[in-house]
Amino acid sequence: MPENLLKRALHARRQLGQAATEYTIVTFFAVVVLIVPDENGDVAIVKLANALKTFYNGFAYAISFSTTITPF
Q1: Does this model's pTM top 0.70?
Q2: Overall domain count for the chain
Q3: CB of 44 within 8 A of CB of 33?
Q4: In sequence order, what E strands does 11-56 have?
Q5: Is residue 71 a part of any domain in this protein?
Q6: Do residues 60 and 52 make contact, with C-beta atoms less than 8 angstroms apart?
Q7: Which SS3 state, helix, strand or coil, does residue 18 take?
Q8: What's the rounded Cα separation, in Å, for the pair 17 and 7?
Q9: Is the dihedral of CA 12, 15, 17, 19 positive or negative?
Q10: Which of 2, 9, 40, 70 is most buried (most C-beta within 10 Å)?
Q11: What would the pLDDT profile of 14-63 be if each residue is shown by its tens digit?
């Protein structure tokens, strides 16, 4: 019985940093994709920020026509 517990403890110890390593690698590649310019010289994060600004401006314009306080 103690051997089985020891094996499980050693197995769990080897896996302790696995999730942190995977998240770090995925985050690194996501950042690289967002900041490296494409063949046209456009940076994805700038395009994303501009799209969010455009959508928010459209939302603010549409909500400005509201005549009631609640949408119901």
Answers
A1: no
A2: 1
A3: yes
A4: none
A5: no
A6: no
A7: helix
A8: 18
A9: negative
A10: 9
A11: 666 778 889 999 999 999 999 999 889 999 999 999 999 999 999 988 88
